[in-house]
Records
---
Amino acid sequence: TQNSSYPTKNLLTSFFFQQTTMVVLSQPLVENFSHIKTCKHNNTTSDHVHTGNIIPVIDLLDPEANNLIIKACQEFGFFKVVNHGVSIETITKLENESINFFNLSQIEKDKAGPANPFGYGNKRIGSKGDVGWVEYLLFTTNPELNHNKSITIPGNSLLFWGLVKEYISAMRNMGCMVLEMIAEGLKIEPKNVLSRMLSDEKSDSCFRLNHYPPCPELLQALSGRNLIGFGEHTDPQVISVGRCNNTSGLQISLKDGTWISVPPDPYSFFINVGDSLQAMSNGRFMSVRHRVIADSLKARVSMVYFGGPPLSEKIAPLSCLMEEPNEKILYNEFTWSEYKMSAYKTRLGDNRLSLFEKNAQS
């Protein structure tokens, strides 16, 4: 099975309890656990988490896929794709290599860090104090940046980097395909008006491997609360293409603020609308807020490709989308570099786009 290469539950628990000093500063486990966010278990309030059986599933071979994607982007900002053409072998090989890395000793993993922002990160997310029950590897796909060359991957690094390159190529192709289907569904020309930002050789995309370790004793100590693996946020890029192993945890927020759980599917991919696409669509599409809840018994591994434009790309509502002459433009024009720098200065859950709204205070 996919979990066969994980260490035993006891070994994982022992190891990660040794690492909690980063989070709780060697103090009593529950008293100081405010360093990592929690959320309520299912209840009858607006925080109630429903089963995600309403999440759109798009067959990319369906003749109506274009229109179905448009509808999903408008209603959810999120959907699952099947018949995507990515081989299971490509997925499985990279997941196995990722598991091999995350199973290494902390000393060995730390050689690939610290994440600044690229490299190995452990519990600390970004530079503004956000933390989560997660460790990760973050890579850039921008050839003009040399950050990846400084990331040391123990073991068969040639195999690892080869698999990462192959996987990123497959994700870029899928992202471009989806964006071209969106352009066709919106009846805008040229067809590559969106996809060219990802296919550009200077595309500032990135790729992250996440590992959410199980910790049953810690979750039991939380007494009726869930442990946040990765706090709620939107993705600043154009779109994100994600995939996980067969462990639950991903949740998305609906327009009314209700959280729904996304059933895991290791053979399919999930597409997120990002902030940049929301701006370019003049608010027709919504950048989806999402988070990850830690699992009490099983490790979760996810792989996410964040499709971003070149740093100099100007982001603004597309004029060809303005259906009415008097349609209000919601966002000021900004470059991806400006937005990226702004995003780095905010907390994970902040509404980054609000700073670029037409009515925002200067």
---
Amino acid sequence: MPEGPELHLASLYVNRMCDGVVFAGPVRKSEVSKNPDVPFTCEAYRITATSRGKEVKLTLTPIKSDDSKQTVKAGQADQPVDIVFHFGMSGYFRFTPEDELHKHAHLLFYSKEKPCRVLSFVDTRRFGSWHPNVSWQPNRGPCIMFEYKSFRENVLSHLSDRAFDGPICEVLLNQKYFNGIGNYLRAEILFRLNIPPFVQARTLLEGLESEDVFENERSTTGMKTSDKAKKKGGKPDLLRLCHTVPLEVVNLGGKVYDPETADYSGFETWLQCYSVDGMKSIQDHKGRTIWFKGHPGPMVPKGSRSPKAKKRSKKEEDNDYTDKKKVAQSCSETTIKKRIKQETVTKTPKNYKDPRPKEIGSKRGKTEKAGEVSTPQKEKKSTARRRKSSSAEPLEGSQRKSGRVTRQNSK
């Protein structure tokens, strides 16, 4: 699932590809998408993008003509419009020629040039969404990457919130306080600090200061650590890594977000914990997989298993279920025999005595012990014989009666 770094790289991609490009006409939506229409059409406009945590905002700005006397045509936009995107599980932007549109492109912006090119929002699983004429979601906190001071203050000033009662691995996914952190980032951050994922969040954050002693340090630019940070032992805290680890992903650039080549080998090399061989994995209380090393911590869910083990057991249950279905649909001959035997036992009265000689009865007992039970076909034949014999008796009586009548008539 795209997280804060991927959404920021997506905004950089849009700005780079759409720089100097003039768009025109209406914004079009695919027929299968259930997201709202974008009521915007213009003869000429530009597109720019910004990101904040797990959101990307496209701004459509009409290009005003130099002729002040020229009036805007009816139905044409004359003011900028913002569209806020949430990428869901698989959303991203592409800028391609019109004849190379992705089959899962769901929102389309057409350029004015010929041949036409299209900026499209591609979402294979259709979990993503967009909202026109709105700003950032108010229930999301400051961005972990580009609003670090506000992010740090927002967390430390709300530690009394019940949200911090839970384990740190689950609290890190709360976008009200950690806007931009997702599944792989939480695993990498906790792994680097050697923090078990299922330790209460409040106990880890209570001792942190509102001022970051590492604020003047930027490892990506090679700046020296402040003197105050050296006195503290030179180790950044949890909130600091929530800021710096995502920036490391941003610095990977095209190795993380490249819709054209889809080559993520650089990103996979960067990962130290998430989905890495030798690491443990377990599902949290909401069913999301957390990767870690060592002991999970005291707040681990009861009866939790590795997702892989759970998947195997589920597959085995599915196979058993299909086998039962097959048996129910087409019973074997042995099953039929068992059913017939049970029916004969239940139908026989308790005080029933076999009228046949003991020898025959003993033979019958031996055959039953040996499992020789009459099949449905034999029962059908015996039933047919009974019907035949029963139907033959009245016929014989009728013939005798008719014979007497003919004799009397002859006399």
---
Amino acid sequence: MAEAKLGQWLFLLACAVTLLKAAGVPVEITYVQSAVAKGAVCLDGSPPAYHLDKGFGSGINNWLVHIEGGGWCNNVTTCLGRKNTRLGSSKQMLKAIAFSGILSNRKMFNPDFYNWNRIKVRYCDGASFTGDVAAVNPDTGLYFRGARIFRAVIEDLLAKGMGNAQNAILSGCSAGGLASILHCDNFHALLPVGTNVKCVSDAGYFINVKDVSGAQHIEEFFSQVVETHGSARNLPPSCTSKLRPGLCFFPQYMASQIRTRIFFVNAAYDSWQIKNILAPGVADPHGTWHECKLDIKNCSPTQLEAMQDFRVQFLSAIGGMTGCPLKGMFIDSCYAHCQTEMQETWLMADSPVLNKTTIAKAVGNWFYDRTPFQKIDCPYPCNPTCHNRVFDPNQHLLEQ
């Protein structure tokens, strides 16, 4: 008995040590001061920012630009709510953050990209870097300049060596994952001719479906984001020429037209989408979905049926990507959101797998043209390797 307990303790200690190693060294913040003169500023007018961990060895001319997530603000009130937080002001951002997962500088934790120049772009505009309103309301002091921020940050990185890039990836998580979809071709166009450019979207494939009350909640919300931020002119014209601009914020209406190669990492039961698109608070006034949204194991048979239907709609929405050699896909059946930034889900001994392949290996094989990867998991709860999220009841649901 004592030996068994000792063995368990040693195993847990080994896991803790591995995770500590994976956490990485904190990377200092860089403020793009030159962007201010271009009007490329955060919601509060402060300069945009990013964290850069320089490449080394064979990766010195390879660049991975990863965009931070953080939801959206859809009107003046919600944008004011972000203005004096890290999601609206670089003044409120941590001066250093640890890199892990796809941003790790350790070969054992990130074998294909560990020695690249790895950048995390901080998110402070509230519209996935699509907005551009010239006027600034003197009463609110809000700047809607996300598209300018994106260009200013890329120009700064080009001047710091990305102009010599041999390989480049634009990636992101959540709202950043959506930005990596919306800006994929723009990013490619800004890189030198001859650079091998691809994109990776993590948890950025938000779908347009009715909520549990039958309302088009997310469609209305995204339309308000686009209207408030003046995003229409910065969305793909191939979409806006045919559909209302608000719809072109959804990947299902525009991603098939992306010319640059792109890989989608997404949970079919994306926990943010379940909480905020399928069963938002406005559609669940009595809180019957509250416990289910915190932990999928708490869901009733009826709720699970609704989630299975959501998966069917998700697979239909992303179906246009299947069979296309330019698109990669890792769609697991986990209750999760953002899986490339976390070491536990990117590459560890117990990370989620599809076809015996981790996310890190699937993305790496796809990028280097070793093996194409387009895999869709079987329905929940079939995958025992899933890391299903369990949420703190006090967590702000929209800040993902």
